[in-house]
Amino acid sequence: MNSDQSNSNLKPHRLSAIQFFAETILGDLHRTIVPILLIGAAGAIMGLAYLTALRALQRVLGPEHSGPWVHLAIMAAVGLTIGLIKRFLDNPGEMELLVDNIHVLGGHDDLRGSLRSLVPVSLLCIAAGGAAGPEAPLVQTTGTMGTWLAKRRGLSVEDTRVLTITGMAAGFTVLFGAPLGAAIFALEILHRRGLEYYEALLPAVLGSLCGYAVYVLATGLGLAPVWTFPTANALRGTDIAWSFAAGVAGAGVAVAFTYLTIGCRRVFERMPMIARSTAGGIILGLLAMLSPFALKFGEIQLDALLTAPAVATFFVIAIFAKLIGTSVTVSSGWRGGFIIPLFFIGAALGRLWHVTVPSTNEVMLMAALMVAINTGVTKTPLGSTLVVTEMAGLPLLPTTIVAAIVSLLLTSEVGLIHSQRRRSVTTAH
């Protein structure tokens, strides 16, 4: 065979390799990777805009800027305003609805209506001091944005689901500052017993990292943990047993919170919409007169909790105030998430436990209970473990994951997000 024949035989192979690269690598880049990066970056920008607006409103409506009676009037007025917004605009959807839509449709079914009321309602609720955080409304917003982009590109249900989950992960990342934990959290919250849409794992991580990078560059906050926990003592063999006990205790608190919230919802649902949110604001304002921990979602309060004197009564009041305040907030038509409030309750219970049993590892107990309580409600053992250890800068993975798994097993039949379920067989690959 001469050289010309040899070269002619090689050309088809070269062309097929180029064609393969263009059709697969570049095609996949255009179909999935670019939208994932866009959603991650847009989620960070949207999160920054949301938090900026929230801080501006907090300077006007926050409980620290007025006396108790004045703020009671503010809470009642905010509750009335929330009811009116929901009455004349669309009722903002719950996180539970988004979870259900992801399973069935791949993403949110109402791309404009719910957000039109969700954003102003949640901003008013959280800024005025409602005991719920921005995680749920922001994640609903960024997840819906992922659905919107998927529909614009005419993607399948499976690809729509991936982009929606990626948007959720980007939203969680802005709030938690924990990209890996946020990505896994967004996947686990869809199910009762661990993540199942495994095909969305790497896209969620990639979008989460992109969003985190954009947010850090935009804010200049750096890579420091959100909370400054005391240095954790070296783990001992007995700490595994204590973490198991923390898992049991955390499951108990999670069950109590779940049924308290369900009970409050049944009471509030008997009221008209406007009266419901107004009554919720009045109750929260009255609870704040008993304890300031009945208000606000706890992210800043947790720093004060960590340095507070070790007085058992203080921690007991903080726990019950936040537990009741958060249940009233999320069940009376006010909008917000309960993840960070549950972290606060876990940290307070950990400090209380250490006051009662001084020989225990206080930081280990706080982290284990933060994870266990949140896992018991949200069913996110891996995500909660990674989020808490990343947010607090703690090297306590062994004990926190033990507490998370114990709590998950004990609460697997108890749920507040009723749309959590196994993936449909029709969506399997």
Plain-language structure description:
The protein has 429 residues and is mainly alpha-helical. Helix content is 73%, strand content 0%. It contains 16 helices and no strands. It has helices spanning 3-61, 68-88, 95-104, 113-128, 135-152, 157-176, 179-188, 201-219, 237-268, 273-290, 299-307, 312-331, 339-356, 362-378, 381-392, 397-410. The radius of gyration is 23 Å and the shape is globular. The termini are far apart. Mean pLDDT is 86; it is low at 10-15 and 20-27.
Low-confidence stretches: 10-15, 20-27
Shape: globular
Count of helical regions: 16
The SSE order reads HHHHHHHHHHHHHHHH
Q: Major beta sheet, specifics?
A: none
Report the β-strand fraction as a percent range: under 5%
Q: Could you tell me the radius of gyration in angstroms?
A: 23 Å
Q: What is the arithmetic mean of pLDDT?
A: 86
The count of strands amounts to: 0
Oligomer: single chain
Estimate the helix proportion, in percent.
over 70%
Distance between the termini: 47 Å
Structure class? mainly alpha
Set down the secondary structure blueprint.
Elements: H1 3-61, H2 68-88, H3 95-104, H4 113-128, H5 135-152, H6 157-176, H7 179-188, H8 201-219, H9 237-268, H10 273-290, H11 299-307, H12 312-331, H13 339-356, H14 362-378, H15 381-392, H16 397-410
Helix pairs in contact: 1-4, 1-5, 1-6, 1-8, 2-4, 2-10, 4-5, 5-6, 6-7, 6-8, 7-8, 7-15, 9-12, 9-14, 9-16, 10-12, 11-13, 12-13, 13-14, 14-15, 14-16, 15-16
